[in-house]
Design goal:
- The protein is built from 3 helices and 11 strands; from the N terminus they run E-E-E-E-E-E-E-H-E-E-E-E-H-H.
- Helix 2 (162-170) packs antiparallel against helix 3.
- The protein is an alpha+beta fold.
- Strands 4, 5, 6, 7, 8, 9, 10 and 11 form an 8-stranded mixed β-sheet that branches. Strands 1-2-3 form a 3-stranded antiparallel β-sheet, with no helix packed on it.
- It folds into 2 domains: 5-44, no CATH class; 48-196, Nucleoside Triphosphate Pyrophosphohydrolase (Alpha-Beta Complex), CATH 3.90.79.10.
- It is globular, with a radius of gyration of 19 Å.
């Protein structure tokens, strides 16, 4: 099948901290021919980075917790347990953002960095493209409240045993997709990673 799509119309319906674009488009069908004209709204933001901070010597991961506007429709879950993440600003590489955000959000200096995967977070409605890393850190002094005042960040930081983090995932205490993916990846690759970073 020759996969093609055609954008018939594009409109920016909102431009602020994020941007919302509206498209009228059509695409080829698996059975042949073209779809009808489709109208879709698309949430647009810069590419992003997330980092699972891991201390291989102590077998601990660094988790953060913060208020998330995207979770307010379930008020009892508006504070989410996540991992360090942030947007790529103009002139920055994904790797540079990983190092910067780890200091800003968790007070951690990354000693080694490994790219896990690049992927769309929710392509049904968003253009967000994310690079996920695992960063080696020393968790001995991790803790407290971090974040940038000018970005209104209020981020609780803690280091927990990997087994505890995995229990939190299984018990539904971690319900955000990116940390779920990262922690499951670490569960599959932890022994190899600990040997690599020994």
């Amino acid at each position: 099948m020759d996969k093609q799509f055609e954008i018939l119309q594009k409109e920016i319906v909102y431009s602020g901290f994020f941007r919302m674009e509206k498209y009228r488009l059509k695409h080829t069908l698996y059975g042949g021919g073209w779809s009808a004209d489709i109208s879709r709204e698309l949430f647009v933001r810069s590419a992003c980075v997330a980092v699972l901070l891991y201390d291989p010597d102590a077998d601990k991961v660094v988790l953060i917790e913060q208020f998330r506007a995207g979770a307010i429709l379930q008020p009892d879950q508006a504070w989410l347990v996540e991992i360090v993440a942030g947007g790529i600003e103009e002139g920055e590489s994904a790797e540079e953002v990983a190092y910067r955000e780890s200091v800003e959000e968790a007070g951690c200096e990354i000693e080694a960095l490994l790219e896990i995967r690049r992927f769309y977070t929710t392509p049904g409605c968003s253009a967000e493209w994310l690079t996920l890393y695992c960063g080696k850190v020393d968790s001995a002094q991790v803790g407290g409240v971090h974040g940038l005042d000018d970005e209104h960040e209020d981020i609780l930081v803690r280091a927990v045993e990997f087994d505890e983090a995995y229990r939190m995932l299984e018990d539904g205490e971690i319900i955000s997709a990116i940390p779920i993916i990262a922690i499951q990846w670490l569960a599959l690759n932890k022994q190899k990673l600990r040997q690599q970073w020994a």
